[in-house]
Amino acid sequence: MTANDSFGRLDDDDYPAYTMGRAAEMLGTTHGFLRAIGEARLITPLRSEGGHRRYSRYQLRIAARARELVDQGTPIEAACRIVILEDQLEEAQRINAEHHRTGR
Q: In sequence order, what are the beta bridge partners of 46?
């Protein structure tokens, strides 16, 4: 991938642009928190060629929601499950709205 190819991906929500350190800094959390939500299968970061975790903007939004719930006292496993269910509900609502628009 050339620099020009990478530059074109900056608007891609799924492009794994952030290192673990940068992601933790942006979320105001620790590397351990990011590992824990990975172990809970809330997000699965991609790996660089060197094996380092890389996160997308979409994954950071999901992680931020989990952190919000944990900060409110929700156990991490429960927070991850809540976020997964919220994400599934949002997707189902999007699909339902699309079906209504297209008359299917």
A: 54
Nearest 5°: phi and psi at 23? -60, -45
Q: How confident is the model at residue 5 (pLDDT cuts 50, 70, 90)?
A: low
Provide the strand spans (E) within the chain.
Answer: 18-19, 46-47, 53-55
Give the rounded distance of the alpha carbon of 69 from its chain centre. Answer: 15
d(CA 63, CA 18): 13
pLDDT tens per residue across span 17-57: 999 999 999 999 999 999 999 999 999 999 989 999 999 99
Do 87 and 43 contact (CB within 8 A), yes or no? no
Q: What is the mean pLDDT of residues 85-89?
A: 95
Burial of 91 (0-12, 13-18, 19+ CB in 10 A): exposed
